[in-house]
Specification:
The chain is mainly β and 180 residues long. It contains 3 helices and 10 strands, in the order E-H-H-E-E-E-E-E-E-H-E-E-E. The chain is globular and about 45 Å long. The N terminus is likely disordered.
Length: 180
């Protein structure tokens, strides 16, 4: 399990340029990156990202933004590098990182981190809630993403739990996961 703080002596916070690219580039490149979370007592916990899913704009019927701009999806229409969180089943917060240019809504769902698979389990474990909505990963003092220079091998597969989107969207190989 990789729940312990990781020595990131060479790690660098990702800059805006990383996030303002297309989600189909950003989502797989997040594999092996580190989510860093600073607690109220200034302790920083770090978790390796092991699985992501890409949600790509107005045309992607599985993407929340396909229904248009709403209070819920507003942050997806911002420039990449923001946090998009939303509640499912009234109990699980889903953590997403917005990517792409302003007004081109895209986001990468964080599905797995070292030691935790499943987006609801991981957010519960690391303490993600509604207060993170709109947080800027490039300047926040409480959440950011670090790059250690590692580029692990990964596989692709269809996204999970989106049958409602129909074909071809439910079968797009837009889930990315680290090889064991």
């Amino acid at each position: 399990m990789e729940r312990f703080p990781i020595n990131t002596g060479i790690a660098q916070r990702l800059h805006r340029e990383f996030f303002i690219r297309d989600v189909l580039l950003v989502a797989p490149e997040l594999i092996g990156k580190i989510i860093a979370l600073r607690s109220d007592n200034d302790f920083v916990r770090r978790f390796i990202i092991t699985e992501t899913e890409a949600y790509r704009g107005l045309e992607d019927k599985a993407c929340h933004a396909s229904k248009g701009r709403t209070a819920r999806t507003e942050v997806m229409f911002h420039e990449g590098g923001k946090v998009y969180v939303y509640l499912v089943y009234g109990m699980y917060w889903m953590l997403n990182f917005v990517s792409g240019e302003k007004d081109v809504p895209q986001a990468a769902l964080i599905r797995g981190i070292g030691g935790f698979n499943g987006p609801g389990k991981l957010t519960r474990e690391i303490g993600i809630d509604k207060s993170y909505y709109g947080e800027d990963l490039c300047s926040s003092r409480r959440i950011w993403v670090e790059d250690t220079g590692l580029n692990p091998e990964y596989k692709t597969g269809p996204r999970i739990g989106i049958d409602y989107a129909g074909n071809p969207w439910k079968n797009k190989p837009w889930r990315f996961y680290k090889l064991k």
